[in-house]
Amino acid sequence: MGESPIRLMVFFDFLCPFCDRANTWLNQVSEQLGERLILEWRFFALEQLNAPVNSDWKIWEQSDDYTTHVMGGRTEFRGLLALWGTVAAQQQGDAASGRFRNALFRARHDEQLDMSQRDAIQQIAEQVGLDMARFTHDFRDRSLLEVLRRDYEEGRARLSGFGGTDAVS
Fold it and tell me: Which domain holds residue 90?
């Protein structure tokens, strides 16, 4: 009788450096355990978590130009396009999504990628070998942003009282 696989639901945001570290570590663990570990990557937008209490603001409802803002004299990058791009990559399967997620984490945290530029996100997709016609179409499909809402709300329900990423359930 074989062992049941370990199933981990990982809530993440590309803006979080701890999620970058967790991604690297979980990839190493996954290589060692193989099919005995099933990782389910879920979106948990920190910008949504940090929205004012009782606000109607939702990251998944923001316009395509919701990318950066200046706070305290420095530019802060928004995470919407990175998350949206990852949902688009998911449409091409788990392997494609994993390559894209790993490359985007590296680009953001090792190379300080400006995630506010749609072209930069598309360049990552091309570098990891995604079908670019499909990716470009899906990266414009606002209905895919529903995944951000669903994952965020599931994360809030599962992780009641938790205040950030990375989180594993």
Answer: 6-160+164-168
Query: Is position 144 within any domain?
Result: yes
pLDDT in tens, 55-112: 898 999 988 878 766 555 555 668 899 999 999 999 999 999 999 999 999 999 999 8
Question: What's the rounded Cα separation, in Å, for the pair 103 and 97?
Answer: 10
Chain position carrying tokens 């370990």: 6
pTM for the whole thing?
Answer: 0.87
For strand 68-71 and strand 37-43, is the pairing parallel, antiparallel, or unpaired?
Answer: unpaired
| 110 is a domain residue | yes
CATH number, domain of 29, equals 3.40.30.10
Contact 105, 128 (CB under 8 A): no
CA angle, 77 then 83 then 89, to 5°: 135
Radius of gyration of the chain (CA): 16
C-alpha span between 101 and 79 (Å, rounded)? 13
